[in-house]
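== Polypeptide entry ==
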Amino acid sequence: MLRRIAHIVAVLAPSFFSAFGAIAQAPFALKEIASGVYAHQGETSLMNRENFGGIANLGAVAGDDCVAVIDTGGSLEQGKAFLAALRAKTQKPICYVINTHAHPDHVFGNGAFVGAGVVFAGHKNLPRALSLRGEHYLAAFRQIMGDALDGTTIVAPTLTIADSTAIDLGGRRIVLQAWRTAHSEADLTALDEKTGTLFAGDLLFLQHVPVVDGSLLGFLDVADRLADIKATRVVPGHGPMVAPWPKALEDERAYLTRLTADLRAAIRKGESVKEAARTAGEEERPKWKLFEDYNARNATAGFAELEWEGP
């Protein structure tokens, strides 16, 4: 488990940033992408002190009665900036905070939204994932982000989803769907039925190369099944924050398919995991940002999974 935690820390923030002095956070942009649906596009970057961990796309949906927030950012400070920007859009109370999975860039801002009547929702595996990894994430990213992580705490869900459930914001239903292990072991999507807006979390990457922290084969399977969701637009976990659906899946599926095929070929040839990681997926390099930071790790994780397939 510690090895997996070290893997996530390494891929999200391989550079060490010393913590000294106060730093200014850039203005938090929150755009209305459909009626009552808001989204923020994170940097296509690695978590660091200068960006306050603000690398993930975040969102919110307002119903007649209250608001659901989808992911909260990579630090308490980013969560506070999100809350302030949201309050400029609507004063309706926040009733749900939905975490699409356990990675720090999506959950470290949770503390900004803690309050009376706020329900934190996530995949049935999210409490375990946060329990096993949360404090280690905090310690590791404290070294990287320094005072930009001040006040950040782990907030566990109080509502867990094993399959599919709908929450009511007042005249507006959000369908929460739990998925098999794919990008991670606790992936959850949120669909606003009123506008057909899907918040896919890190089950969808655009421009930012996909990251495999769960199962390569599971990720491929889920990517196929996601296409059946009746949505109009999608907000990915990373990359351009609005895209047509299901066309948005095409590049990710092509990358995962190519990586899987290359790894299977390497295994058949008897290559070592180190040899396979140098070349698997290379054909996809021109299409993706941060390829150098993630692809070899994806290949290493995928190799370990695929070598047990047998002939």
In short: Residues 221 and 258 are 14 Å apart (CA to CA). Residues 13-23 have pLDDT under 50 and may be disordered. Helices lie at 2-12, 76-89, 104-107, 126-145, 216-226, 250-268, 273-279, 291-306.
